[in-house]
């Protein structure tokens, strides 16, 4: 069941104003770590940051993006991903009943929680919503211990999954991110976020909820810490931070991490994913993120470097056995589009191609059938980052299987040509 935005009543809106005021009391607190920031052209006050295109993974901007740092509650995105994966594999459902463990009920009270008691029973959906909206540590541990036998059992699975996903810097020591021994680079956080959106887009149905009650009897709703959500545009207290098109993903804070935020925004046909780590305050993580989004939407545009259904000069056809033709023409299945400076033309280089060797492809072949791949490389003049994009090659037309009569005469012809060439080579 898809959850839509919750319509806030006046009393809830009033509560939000009070809540934000309380939060703002600490919004100017500088983190204990060194407050100097790496130099960068956008003037970002961050310890690390990255901005990528969600469709291609292209790096659009980066500051210290490969340094492992504590991600704080952004860690919960991996927990959320693994719950969604378990649902997709039908290991659990949204309606699966979870009995709250002692481990979850004893979660320290100094962080966000929904005050679960041991033995409470809630559905996966209820606990997941609490994790996604309120960043509830107890709900997160309840799900982790349910799926892994214990939080640490689940953490072991998190580290296994990180290796599968190719997250080179990721070291998980908790399901919540409460321990500063959990480490990830901004680059890996963005990579993880992109995989979530590609494989489980329903993630956004939950991360975009601005507020919702956990229990019907609760006096106040859970409040999403993502102040940038477009769904917050009607709330005056969030007006300085709301950004059109933002619908996720996850905030985080630890003394050792500073204020962090993984965000995503979609405008038109462009979706971006951003990560900022080590900002000074609750609000700063959003204002620094806005600088990244403004840079992309104001300075960059999407251009097509390789057209769909285009012929690759070095791989125009593939050899074919037992067909009415001895080869089949191939074209690109899809295009290759890139974000570049407005007015610029993306320059890409063909670096690899892979097609069946002679004799491997046998007729018949259908138009649109995948027959190989080509890989292009793009180097961003601004960031210096390179990106490889592999595009499928497909058959441009049908090629039927040849009759035995045609194949016999073709064989005779090939034999005569081979014999003649052999004789010529004697002289």
TrEMBL record:
GO terms for biological process: cell wall organization; peptidoglycan biosynthetic process; proteolysis; regulation of cell shape. Keywords: Carboxypeptidase, Cell shape, Cell wall biogenesis/degradation, Hydrolase, Peptidoglycan synthesis, Protease, Signal. The active site is at residues 73, 76, 135. Its EC number is 3.4.16.4. Pathway: Cell wall biogenesis; peptidoglycan biosynthesis. Substrate binds at residue 250. Residues 1-32 form the signal peptide. InterPro entries: Beta-lactam/transpept-like, Peniciliin-bd_prot_C_sf, Peptidase_S11, Peptidase_S11_C, Peptidase_S11_C_sf, Peptidase_S11_N. One of its GO terms (molecular function) is serine-type D-Ala-D-Ala carboxypeptidase activity. It catalyses: Preferential cleavage: (Ac)2-L-Lys-D-Ala-|-D-Ala. Also transpeptidation of peptidyl-alanyl moieties that are N-acyl substituents of D-alanine. Residues 300-401 form the Peptidase S11 D-Ala-D-Ala carboxypeptidase A C-terminal domain. Removes C-terminal D-alanyl residues from sugar-peptide cell wall precursors. Belongs to the peptidase S11 family. This is serine-type D-Ala-D-Ala carboxypeptidase. It comes from Paenibacillus beijingensis.
